[in-house]
Amino acid sequence: MGFLRFMRRHNYPFKNKTGNQAHLLRCMQSRGFSKNEVVDGNNAVLPVLIIGAGPVGLVLSILLTKLGIKCAVLERNKTFSKHPQAHFINNRSMEIFRKIDGLAEEIQRSQPPIDLWRKFIYCTSLSGSVLGSVDHIQPQDLEHVVSPVSVAHFSQYKLAMLLQKQLENLGFKICAAESSEGHEHFCEKKIMMGHECVSIDASNSDFLTITASTIDKGRRVEWNINCNILIGADGAGSTVRKLVGVEMRGEKDLQKLVSVHFFSKGLGQFLLQENPGMLFFIFNTEAIGVLVAHDLRQGEFVLQIPFYPPQQTIQDFSPKACEKLIIKLIGRKFGDIDVIDIKPWIMHAEVAERLTCCGNRILLAGDAAHRFPPAGGFGMNTGIQDAHNLSWKIASVMKGIAPFSMLNTYDIERRPKVALDGIFALGRAQLSKSLLNESNPLGSSRLAKLRHIFEEGKSLQLQFPAEDLGFRYLQGALVPESNDIDIPAEVPTGRRRDYVPSASPGSRLPHMFVRLNRLTEEIVSTLDLVSGDKVEFVLIIAPLEESYHLAREAFKVAEKFQVSLKVCVLWPTDSVEELENGSKAALSPWKNYADVYEIKRSRISNWWDMCKMTNRGAILVRPDEHIAWRTTSELAGDPRLEMQRVFSAILGVN
Predict the structure, then answer these.
(1) Please, what are the domains in the chain?
(2) SS3 assignment, position 92
(3) 95 by DSSP, 3-state: which?
(4) pLDDT for position 432
(5) How far apart are CA 630 and CA 42, in angstroms?
(6) Stretch 310-323: mean pLDDT, rounded?
(7) Do 352 and 370 form a contact (C-beta atoms < 8 A)?
(8) 412 C-beta neighbours (distance < 10 Å), count
(9) How many helices (H) and strands (E) would you count in the chain?
(10) How far is residue 226's CA from residue 53's CA, in Å, rounded to a whole number?
(11) Among 83-92, 304-313, 434-443, whose mean pLDDT is lowest?
(12) pTM reported for the whole predicted model
């Protein structure tokens, strides 16, 4: 393509800070590759290699595969973890899952009923005094006013199982560590278990060479994989991050805890009858901890206990010792307590100093890029949204639509610019200072502090709608508005704030239910107007002649940039049927358009009012459902020149 400029080369000398031998000799920024790029006719180059088969790596591999990009996954562990870990899936992640072949619906069917997990409960023991409780579900959360889907309570290992099933449906094979399949002729669509990334060689100008290590028939085997792009989604202790010498910035070692995974159907039945909830903050003179009820019906729990080395070691938390602690926190004995797993972990609040390196060929996602305290479930959810942001950009590069430099917008958009203190201050305070601290035993001062927390509405929150659905990119693969430079970064308070719909560039497209055909009952969200199966932009307009003219020019420009564009003509509820037939004539010869219709609802204003725009405006939406550009009213200048400027800015193409 004539408009792609490439071969801007620059070198980065990386030092290995971990003691392992890393071969990062030279990094280069280059052009996009076609899907079937091969080097020297023998060694096939995999477009994308993902390190880490946690939820982030699995979601990214699904999204890339749906966009037609070949990929494979390496996982250091021989088996998938059964430790529940994360359990709260927020609105934005559930919206992403709606685009993955029924995944959101399966999660909603499989999760416990909402009345069993909507509360946090503060008590002296599970059979003792209840000091307070907080209901985290409000009516609008279930009415789909701001989102077409509700939040979910679903254990991470169960989510991973559903993601594996999705990948198998897409043709992926899960290969055991002992299998030598793929060592000599590596191919895409595999999840290679028990394989560790041990070095990265970036000396070739066209691809990376990753050395993977595994144990095969009792001996260690190393083999090389060539790839265009490497994703480090390998968790908080990321090998990829260490190999490329990227540091973490923020607060380390906020608190050390032990996570105890256990089953007790007796305890589950007791809580179902007495006081069902999701989190139980328990503290008495003998023990303190936070009990997470992953599924009361199955009796599956995780207990988080503070851990104080060097006074304590992990050996102090044997299954028998943990069972005794559980009984102290419950306040009564249950004979069926079965301790499955005991894991120490450390709470951090850190973000990587950069998310891309080596000419944007190596990228970090999920816990490898940022480590959060558990308040609000931001850890796993943020990683899933990293994958969503990254997938369409990688696809744009690999399909030759955009240069590698476009991937720099991933770092610009996804690396937090506001200190982590704001959003997590309350969570840190409650988890590490007020609640889980053995030096502060239960007494009148603790009870007074708790009462004050409840009265002030400062209890630990589960949902953060303003941050979950309302987060906005101010720079990146978008066209900012002139007044955006004066917007101060809003520091979250740690309290629940309602989401206010916005159509400003960088915002998630506001949700509204619309009808696809006025003569049928098929109703979808405006978010469903964006395809999950191809790199396609969506231009939303009203049925006005000047807007049709803009759409025709946008089609011409998109064709020049070799990017797919769909036009959605949004008709008001009181539209006249004869006028609707005008879209076909107005947009001919282009056929990639849809007429959609507002649904009149008493609680929701019309679309353009909700977006704080006139119906003479237009909105361009990216493949990840974030707004790339808008005009709030009719364009004053040449529509074709404006669309050329817009697509050039988004794709990073001159």
Answers:
(1) 43-83+157-248+352-414 (3.50.50.60), 501-651 (3.40.30.120)
(2) helix
(3) helix
(4) 39
(5) 47
(6) 92
(7) yes
(8) 16
(9) 18, 28
(10) 19
(11) 434-443
(12) 0.90
